[in-house]
Each structure stands twice: as C-alpha cells, then as structure tokens.
Amino acid sequence: MPVCSAVPVELAASERHRLKKMAYGHKTPHQARQRATIVLLAARGRGNARIAAETRLHVDTVRRWRGRFAAGRMPALADRKRSGRPPTFTTLQIAEVKALACQLPFQWKFTTTDLDDLLARLDRHTLTDRQEESSTALAA
C-alpha cells in the first residue's frame, strides 16, 4: 500500500504576510484563521499529522487545505460556491421588502383590502416564477 506524502508548500513573502494577518487577526473568521494556520505550519515543513495534532483538526482537513493551497495559492483558501436550492426571492425583492419594513406605519396607507390584494399578487408572482423555472428546466 503506497504511503501518501504531504504536498510541499513554499510561500512568497507577500503570501506569508497575508497568511499571518489572517491567522493572527482578531476579526478574521474562524475558518479562515484555521486555513491560514494550516498553510503557515505546512510552510515550516511540518507533516499533516503534526499539524492536525497542533491545530486539533482532522488529518483529512489538514490534507485538504494544504493541497488546495498548493494547487491554487491564496484564492483557493476561500469558500467554494455551495450547491443547493437557488434563492426564492431576488436581491431587489428583498431590498424592496426591507425598505417597506423600515418605513413608519403611517406612511404605508394600506387598508386590509390592499394587503389582501398584495398577498394575492405575491402568490401569483411566485407561482409564475416557479412555473417558468420548471419549464426552463424541462427545456434544458
């Protein structure tokens, strides 16, 4: 059974500087801090098992981020796009609802009939959007 060797990591001065800022920055998100620490320790020549023990992470996690950095450098440390259901509402629709919610109630001038009409329109709008999405999915 072949033994896997750790991917060697060498850093440029600018990369080392950015990674140190990420690893020791107080406002850096936790995952970014872990990734930067893994790469810095790998650049010092440490093995995956030792890095995993020092950072209290799984060896597979260390191997993944070390390999991604070696393949794609700094941009590879960012989160990848996740799969899943696409957003139901567009960013414009979300912004309009937030703007409406931030207005004072006396500025709305809605009656209950207006609200019922608004809800009916919203239902029709979401139904037509879903029908369009399903028809384009079937066409593809």
Q: How would you concisely characterize the structure shown here?
A:
With 140 residues, this protein is mainly α. It has 6 helices and no strands.
Features of the shown structure:
140 residues; mainly alpha
Please explain how this structure is put together.
This protein has six helices and no strands. The longest helix is centred in the C-terminal third of the chain and has 28 residues, at 112-139. Helix 2 (30-43) runs antiparallel to helix 3 (48-55), helix 2 (30-43) packs across helix 4 and helix 3 (48-55) packs across helix 4. The two termini are 45 Å apart. With 140 residues, the protein is mainly alpha-helical.
Q: What is the count of DSSP helices, taking H or I runs of 4+ residues?
A: 6
Query: Can you count the beta strands?
Result: 0
Mean pLDDT: 79
* Proportion of residues in extended strands: under 5%
CA radius of gyration is 25 Å
**Backbone shape:** elongated
Low-confidence stretches: none
Structural class by SSE content: mainly alpha
Helix content: 55-70%
Give the end-to-end Cα distance, rounded to a whole number of Å.
45 Å
The SSE order reads HHHHHH
Main sheet summary? none
